[in-house]
Amino acid sequence: MRLDTLGIDPSVSTLFPPEVLRDALSDLPVETVVLDEARSATDSLDGVVTFAYDERFLDTGWIHSVQAGVDRFPRDRLSEANVVLTNSTGIHGDAIGETVAGYVLAFARRLHDHVSNQRRANWSQPEWNEAWTVAGERACVVGLGSLGRGIVDRLTGLGLDVDGVRRTPTPEPGVDRVYTPSELETAVSDARFVVAAVPLTDETSGIIDRAVISAMREDAYLINVARGEVVEQESLVAAIESGDIAGAALDVFETEPLPESSPLWDMNEVIVSPHCGAFTHEYVDHVASIVRESVRRVRAGETPVNTVP
Ligand code: NDP
C-alpha cells in the first residue's frame, strides 16, 4: 500500500481536536492534513484517520478508526474496494476500567444518591442496611479483551472475585472461571455486577437478553460499556422497574444521545453516562502512537497495527 498522504477527518473531534492529532504526527514522513470542504478524501489521500464513516473514504487505501468498535463501518464494501480497516483497540482498558470501578463504588457506597440529594440541599443519610462494601462480591465480565482486562484488574484490586465470558475457553489471569457464550446464564447467575465489554457483532447483538437478565440476582447491577445493542434495553428497563435486578450503569445506548423520553433518566438505581467511559486527555496521544506505528509498518511493506479481518 502506498502511504504519502494522510487525512484526519473532523469527526475525530468527538474525542479530541483534529489539529492536536495532526501536530502530534507532524514529524512523520507523510503529509498529514485535517480534512475540510476544500480538501476532501477524494483528493488523492492514501489513508484517513476518522471517527465516522464516509463513502468518500472508499477512495483511500486505509481507514483508521479512532474507536475500538468498528460496527459502524461497512466491512464488506471496504474489502470489495480493497480498503484496509484498522481500529484503536488496546488503548481503552485503563479509562474504562476506572469508569467501571467508579460505577461499582458509586452503587455500593451510595455516591449517586448523595450527589442527587446534594443538588436539592437534602441532608439524607442512607438507611442502616443500604450501603455496602464490594470486597468479596462477585463480578462477571462478558468480554475479556483490552476492556475486559482493564476492568478485571480494577475490580480484583478492589477485592471482588471475577468470572469472565468469551468464546475462547482458556484461563485468564485474575479470572476465577472463564465461561463460553452458551453458558452466559450460568455465568451471570451469582454475580453482583455483570459487565458487558464485547464488540457489537451479529453474535453479540442482544446477547444480554431477557433470559440472561432474568438469570441475574435480584440485587445485581448490569454495567454496559460495550455498545447499546449488546443489551436488550426494553428488557433491562422492565427488569429494573419490576425489581428483578437492582439497577444499571450505562455508558452506551440503543439510541444515542439517549432520548429525553427514556425512562432510564429518572431511575434511582441507574447511572447514565454519555458514551464517555473511555475519555481521557491522553486519548489523542494513544491514537497517535497507533497511527505512527502503522505508518512505519505500511511504509516498510508490513501490515498496519490492529487490522480488522
Ligand atoms: P477486544 O477485541 O480486545 O476484546 C473483545 C473481547 O470480546 C474478547 O475477549 C473476545 O474474546 C470477546 N468476544 C468476542 N465475541 C464474543 C462473544 N460472541 N461472546 C463473548 N465474548 C466475545 O475489544 P476491546 O476490549 O478493545 O473492545 C470491546 C468493545 O468495547 C469494542 O468493540 C467497542 O464496541 C466497545 N468499546 C466501548 C468504549 C466506550 O467508550 N464505552 C470504548 C472502547 C471500546 P473471544 O474472541 O475469545 O470471544
UniProtKB/TrEMBL annotation:
Gene Ontology MF: a single term: oxidoreductase activity
Report the Pfam families cross-referenced here.
2-Hacid_dh_C
D-isomer specific 2-hydroxyacid dehydrogenase NAD-binding domain residues are 102-277
- EC no.? 1.1.1.-
Which InterPro entries does the record cross-reference, listed alphabetically?
A: D-isomer_DH_CS, D-isomer_DH_NAD-bd, Dhydh_Halo, NAD(P)-bd_dom_sf
Q: What class of enzyme is it?
A: oxidoreductase
UniProt keyword list: NAD, Oxidoreductase
PANTHER family the UniProt entry points to: 2-HACID_DH_C DOMAIN-CONTAINING PROTEIN, D-ISOMER SPECIFIC 2-HYDROXYACID DEHYDROGENASE NAD-BINDING DOMAIN-CONTAINING PROTEIN
UniProt name for this protein: D-2-hydroxyacid dehydrogenase
> Which organism was this protein described from?
Halobaculum roseum
Gene giving rise to this polypeptide: ddh
